[in-house]
Design goal:
Helix content is 22%, strand content 23%. It has 86 residues and is an alpha+beta fold. The longest helix has 10 residues.
Length: 86
């Protein structure tokens, strides 16, 4: 996800983005990582990196349930993400 993709998500008022990779992975756009992260946070977009099996979702609209670990004093937690297709 580059800055342009982040801007598009903000424009469309996306509330949550799931990735099958770490969204801050280093690569050609490595210098843009801090700006992308700030862009998500400023827009109130929740990010869920390392989500597995996204390719198995066959419906356009689904219900997502995310069950985080109960952790104190951290800003993030691993989650068990479950998608229900209707």
């Amino acid at each position: 996800m580059n800055v342009a993709a982040t801007d598009w998500c903000v424009e469309k008022r996306i509330s949550l983005i799931g990735f099958d990779f770490y969204h801050g992975a280093t690569g050609p756009d490595e210098d843009e990582y801090p700006e992308r992260t700030k862009g998500y946070a400023r827009a109130g977009i929740i990010t869920m990196p390392y989500i597995c099996n996204l390719d198995q979702i066959s419906k356009r609209r689904v219900t997502l349930m995310a069950f985080p670990l109960n952790m104190i004093g951290v800003e993030a937690s691993p989650v068990r993400a479950v998608v229900i297709e209707h």
